[in-house]
Amino acid sequence: MTAAPALPRTAAELGLAEQFRAAPGAAASSARAAAFHRFESAGLPTRRVESWHYTDLRVALAKAAPLAAPPDEATIAAAKDRLATLPRLAPARLVLINGVFVAALSDPPPAGVTLAPAAASATFSVDDPMLALALALAPAGVAAIVAPGAKPSPIEVVHCFAGEGPRSVYSRLVIDVGAAASAAFVERFVGAGTETQRHASTAIDVAAGGALAHVAAIEDEPGLHVESEVVRLAEGAALDAFAFVAGGALVRRQIFARLVGERARIGLAGLGLLDGRRHADTTLEVVHAAPRGESREFYRHIVADEANGVFQGKVIVQPGAQKTDGAMKSQAILLSPEATMNAKPELEIFADDVVCGHGATIGALDPEQLFYLQARGLPPAEAEAMLLEAFGAEAISRVADAELAEALLALMRDWLARRGRGSRS
Amino acid sequence: MLEIKNLSASIKGNVILDGLNLTVKTGEVAAIMGPNGSGKSTLSYVIAGKPDYEVTSGEVLLNGENILGLAPDVRAARGIFLAFQYPIEIPGVATMTFLKATLNAQRRARGLADLTTPEFMRIVRTAAQGLKVDPDILKRPLNVGFSGGEKKRMEILQMTLLAPRLGVLDETDSGLDIDALRIVADGVNALRGPDRSFLVITHYQRLLEHITPDVVHVMARGHIVKSGGPELALELERNGYRDYVTEAA
After folding, report:
1. Residue A94 structural domain
2. ipTM exceeding 0.90, yes/no
């Protein structure tokens, strides 16, 4: 990223600098200091930064909320009760509270998986100011290391927020899948409220012949949710990732993926359900750096009221990445005249023997379909919900695990029911 | 049952129905025949409540109640069923899911409890068998990839399940081969009864060989221009619509 012209520091930027200096041990760590320096020299991203064009954090983040406290015994006890009522989406559960891994609330990892502090992962080396900020301020977090050849049962990582009033929370997770191993992880974000500012980072590294299924679900209502996923796929490695975004006032999910080995395959998919005045931005950068790679992106959004959806997908095929096969699709349904969707698929191809395509559609529900359903007796809200459920379910069908897909369908139905009730009142 | 008085309707400023009067008695099967562009399909849509049309005058009374102000789903719950000329494809919605939702929505609107799944399955299986609808098709998304005949049979299957008071059949014979036509007609005939009326809209007489109407109305230029018995359909088959198309030109 080129250095932005010097803008005066905002109150939020000044506050973040203060927080960094005051954070215990942060300034003393050279890696953290370097990360914060990267953030500070770029500043909060503005519309002038191309990849942040639709989400101006310099404007949106007026004030940096104070850092959330690391969990103490009372916090852990309270979280234990809340987690007891949270239905599981995977057999094994790992818990982070305010970014700190809490062994006392976590299951022992399944056979083939070891845990370690997520200190420094080379995979994180992507130049983005918000990722740099997260790496500067996040607690050590946790790294889940899947041994070569292992096929552990699925694991859910629950990112809990605990705290009162305006608070910032930073987290760092590393998922390392060994050669020829196969694993599934679900990251769930819970507990945040409108005054919570969340900065999450996940590094995913899949070694040769390994396979990972990854699902991220925002189930709470943070004021700000900035999540960076950095992915590195070695030869013949595969990632199937899905994101379910149904909460959060301002959500930015960014995925930086590099297919560095031959015949690596990545499937990125997601469903965004936006109502009220929510803003949700999904920005992808998929780099094919080796031949015979395959990438598929499939994102759907339902945008209601005055909400605003953003999809930016950039696929870069580097010189030498011959026989790359890429296809990207973004589809959105707008439910009100005030709802907006910005879709920007992009291809940058520097190799000559590739097959790449993209498509984006934005539309309303089909009035002919709505009339047909109503003529059969379905009230308008029910007819609409039936069509929307079908639209969203096609995105969720990209989740291979049937139980997990069913759980996401249930979350979508909850959202549709809440909306239905809201629109009738 | 159905009483239409001085009904005029337009779409995008074009007048399609122009002072139409029509009465369908309880238990009666009335056929409406007419040339292309006479407003037959528009009449069916206006009865069902399609929002594209603007009703500029008149009333549509169902058992004495003017239904023109009612939403389409409310009309359906009152007992109106429109079998579409071109049934709409609904990707992603399994036919079975759709059937259950519509049946229960209408039951709720009438203050009845939802059907249990076994009850529902039994009713659907019986109806599907009668109409020779392949049970496998019920698992597929509604009308998606169905043949013309399958779509029309699905319309009649829905009508059988929803058991309306008034069935409006809009060109149900179009696109059907003779075997499918017979199955569809048998399905309709099975539903005939003293409490149920039908409005059978068709361009050709051949459907009426299988569904014998009590009365035949001829529609042209947005209103009914002639009414008579079943023999009127045969006369039209011989002479065509030219007398009615040119009458007021």
Report:
1. 11-261
2. yes
